[in-house]
Every structure is written in structure tokens, then in C-alpha cells.
Specification:
42% of the residues lie in helices and 21% in strands. The protein is an alpha+beta fold and 236 residues long. The radius of gyration is 20 Å and the shape is globular.
Length: 236
């Protein structure tokens, strides 16, 4: 698990020595384990002698609930939402205190963002993250606020009382809005996907600030969230 955990968005290809250094496992131990992983197609070695995630691991991951149920059921609605808005569309779930982006649809005129499918971003600086956090129990919210909060932009809300008020507003109105809290020039709107009154995911749209029409985006997102929820209920 430590060896597979070395691979991420910034390190998609690693040499055996690099894996050994990161895991602090002896080179001989790494060689033995990596050889087993390679034989099972969990990793693959390229002509540059670097290892990458293999096809077997990707195949297995497709059977995870996030991919098999949520992502697959949501994809047609996400595509319609993208066609309607022409903007970045994101789907995220809560994962170990962060927003895990399950899927993302982008287009030519979409504003560049730091979010990517399979990536994590803070809860308090992203539209989908604020929704996911706002619908957690009070104890979980307080636990999150008590941790050191990153401030990627001057507009990022990190002061405890201000963040509590923000999350309270999100819960009361049923949607979140961010304005240059994660990246310069971009804003977002997101709504919860509810099942039996519980927020299981959040769907959002990221736009350039001059196209941040909150009312219009909330209407489109609310319809999309209801559609995804219905799809999930219809495939239990």
C-alpha cells in the first residue's frame, strides 16, 4: 500500500530508487514487491525504466461504489448540465476531511481550475466542499474548523466564526457560492445531492467571475441534483 500510495498527480512515474526513498523500504524489498505488483499488472514499467499505475488497478477501481454507482449514474446528468451551462461541471464527495472530485467535465471556454477527477481540494475554499461540510453534523464541522485551514487566496474564509456563519447560510439556502476563494478570477456555485435527507455528494459549476449568475446556476444545479438523486434511488 505504501508503494502504490507513492503515485499521485505530480508523481505518475517513479524509478525503483525513488520508490525506495519515499517508502523508506530497503531497495531489495522494493524490488521484490514491485516485481510482484508488475506481474499482476498493478504497476507497469516503461522503456524509461520508470513505474506507473497498471491497468489491473484501474480495472478494479471501476468497481468501487464511487465509480460504479455514483459516477456512472450521474454522468448523463452532468453532460446535460455542461451542455446547458458550457462551464466546468464537478461532482464531489467527502473523503477524509477533503472534497474528492469524482468527475469533472470541461470545455474550450471553461476557465482553468485546479480541480481534477480523482483529486482532493479543501472543503472550506471550494463550492462543492462547502456544501459537503455544511451538511455534516455540528461536531464534525467543529472538528474541521479546529484544524489549521489553508488560505490559498486572500478571499478564502478561514476565520472560525466567519466560516461557521458561511456554512450556516449554505445549509439554510441550500447552495454555496465562492468568489475567488480557490483560484483567481473564478467563482463557483454548488448544491447537495440528497438521499433520505442526507448529503451523499455535491454537484457544482465553476465559472469566470464575470459569468457568475448565481440565480441561473442554482436553478440548473438544483434540477441536476434532483435528477442524480432519482437515478441513485432507481438503482439501489
Amino acid at each position: 500500500m505504501e508503494i502504490l500510495g507513492c503515485f499521485d498527480a505530480t508523481q505518475s512515474a517513479l524509478t525503483l530508487t525513488e520508490i525506495s526513498e519515499q517508502t523508506r523500504l530497503p531497495l531489495s524489498t522494493c524490488h521484490r514487491i514491485v516485481a510482484t505488483l508488475e506481474a499482476g499488472a498493478f504497476v507497469a514499467r516503461g522503456t524509461d525504466r520508470k513505474y506507473r499505475i497498471g491497468t489491473k488497478l484501474w480495472t478494479i477501481a471501476q468497481h468501487a461504489p464511487l465509480s460504479d454507482r455514483l459516477r456512472e449514474r450521474a454522468l448523463p446528468t452532468l453532460a446535460r448540465l455542461y451542455e446547458e451551462t458550457g462551464e466546468n461541471v464537478t461532482l464531489a464527495v467527502l473523503d477524509r476531511g477533503q472534497a474528492l472530485y469524482v468527475d469533472r467535465l470541461v470545455g474550450e471556454r471553461s476557465i482553468p481550475t485546479v480541480s481534477r477527477a480523482g483529486g482532493h481540494l479543501p472543503l472550506h475554499t471550494t463550492g462543492v466542499g462547502k456544501v459537503l461540510l455544511a451538511y455534516q453534523p455540528a461536531t464534525a464541522i467543529e472538528q474541521y474548523i479546529a484544524t489549521p485551514l489553508s488560505k490559498p487566496m486572500p478571499q478564502s474564509i478561514t476565520e472560525p466564526d466567519a466560516l461557521r456563519a458561511e456554512l450556516r447560510d449554505v445549509r439554510e439556502r441550500g447552495y454555496s457560492v465562492t468568489r475567488e476563494e480557490m483560484t483567481r478570477g473564478s467563482g463557483s456555485v454548488a448544491v447537495p445531492i440528497l438521499r433520505n435527507g442526507k448529503c451523499v455528494a455535491a454537484v457544482g459549476v465553476i465559472v469566470h467571475m464575470n459569468r457568475l449568475d448565481v440565480s441561473r446556476l442554482v436553478a440548473s444545479l438544483t434540477d441536476a441534483a434532483a435528477s442524480i438523486s432519482a437515478e441513485l434511488d432507481g438503482h439501489r
